[in-house]
Design brief:
The chain has strands at 4-8, 12-17, 20-25, 29-35, 40-45, 53-58, 63-68, 73-78, 81-86, 90-96, 101-106, 112-117, 122-126, 132-140, 143-150, 163-168, 175-180. With 182 residues, the protein is mainly beta. The strands form four sheets. The chain has a six-stranded antiparallel beta sheet with strand order 4-5-6-7-8-9, with no helix packed on it. A hairpin with a 4-residue loop joins strand 7 and strand 8.
């Protein structure tokens, strides 16, 4: 069953799930969305419309993942256990529940992609492919992907588009260029 009737204001997010109202109070909400693949709601918070922290809530209202850019902490729940990491310069984190995976982009000068299993074990850390820089985490055809921006003209398509989805092989950390990102 999906969540429905998602609405929010600056300090409250509300939705319906299993004919029940779920209401969560959080300061400085700037955006909310439903993630149907992971069966959760994403809540982005910050001041002056600048993203400072992100929550992922299960449809029944439990916190699945939470990270703060400034304090450098990311926390998620796995089988009732709280996993907490402290990382420099968290840019984005993404939960891929069906893949038992948390991907994190972090780093000050150059972003690094780090993959963790839900139990907190690190799978790998890697830099962007040659001639690219990491932009953001996503899904392509329901599988984990990372969008990269070309830093050389030779990687652009004939129309000058330079952002591409790269599929991710969790076992080898290999990234394969697959589709344009929009």
């Amino acid at each position: 069953m999906q969540a429905s009737d998602l609405s929010w204001n600056h300090d409250t997010v509300i939705w319906q799930y299993n004919h029940e109202k779920v209401e969560i109070k959080i300061a400085n909400i700037i955006f909310c969305s439903v993630d149907t693949v992971n069966a959760c709601n994403n809540v982005t918070c910050g001041s002056n419309h600048i993203e400072e922290e992100v929550y992922l809530f299960s449809f029944d209202g439990n916190t699945l993942l939470h990270y703060r850019m400034e304090s450098r902490t990311i926390t998620w729940i796995n089988d009732g256990l709280k996993i907490t990491l402290v990382l420099d310069h968290i840019e984005q984190a993404f939960l891929y529940r069906s893949e038992d995976l948390v991907l994190i982009l972090n780093g000050k000068k150059e972003k690094i992609l780090t993959a963790y299993s839900l139990d907190g074990s690190q799978y790998f850390r890697r830099f962007a492919p040659t001639n690219y820089k990491f932009s953001y985490l996503s899904r392509m055809r329901s599988l984990p992907s990372v969008v990269c921006e070309a830093i050389t003209k030779s990687e652009e398509d004939q129309f000058g588009r330079n952002q591409w989805h790269f599929s991710l092989d969790i076992q080898t950390a290999a990234l394969e260029k697959t589709h344009l990102a929009y």
